[in-house]
Amino acid sequence: MILLRVNHITKEQMRTSGKRLAGLVRPASRSGSTFMVHLEARTEYPHVTAIAPLNEPAGFYGQDVLSVTRQFWYDSYGNIRYPFGNDQQGNLLEVIHDAFQPLGYWNDFANYPQFEGVAMDTHIYEVFSNQEVARNWDQHIESICNRGRTIESWTKSAGSLWTVVGEWSLAAYDCAPYLNGRGVGSRYDGTYPGSSKLGDCAAFTGDGSHFFREYKDFLRRFWEAQVTSFEKGQGWIYWTWKTEKAHEWSYSAGLEHGWIPKDVNDRIYPGICG
Length: 274
Fold this sequence. Notes:
Layout: E1 2-3, H1 12-15, H2 31-42, E2 50-52, H3 63-81, E3 93-97, E4 118-124, H4 130-133, H5 137-155, E5 162-168, H6 213-230, H7 251-257
Parallel strand pairs: 1-2, 2-3, 3-4, 4-5
């Protein structure tokens, strides 16, 4: 899958683009991004099966951003699904992001039969608010299992889209270096602006060989809860394969240290979500 990571209306421009901004910079037009999508769709990459034309549009800013996002999905649909300039459809799937809105917000949007080959991408993390990092391990598991039930209910409803959890991790604390931005601290240890200290980060991030046994056991439970929940839709993509320091985010470190199984179907807690 090819994904456009940073644009004027994405969350990425504010946190991980390399330039920290107080708010959104509004683009003069969408033409540059839609043209790029058009070129990508016309180029033959045999291993590319989908294009996500925009990552994480910041719909939490309100209706102005949501209106632009919805129109952008329509504009890019034509470029991705009809890249040849005629009525011939291409083979690429268009993957659109939920813009941080409940899945139900997108009922009857770009769905079959008026549209074909469109999937919804939702990103699920448990670390980007004071409320989330204050949860205990059992509360994290319960929250994720509830998200799975929501995904299952929506994907079975009329007017929905195929749904993939395109980003998720095993982090239960916002302790990874630079997770909240360069020079910005963590909510869990109270160094993030407006947060209160809940505990120390040292035990929950860094080299996985130093994680204590109960924490590793939780990471395995958290893995199984999320895989079980997200497969109630059309699947998942883990973020991320490898990190320099924060092994709670690293798939490869999870494999090495044992809290992620080599066989993704392997279960120690098969009834974890009831």
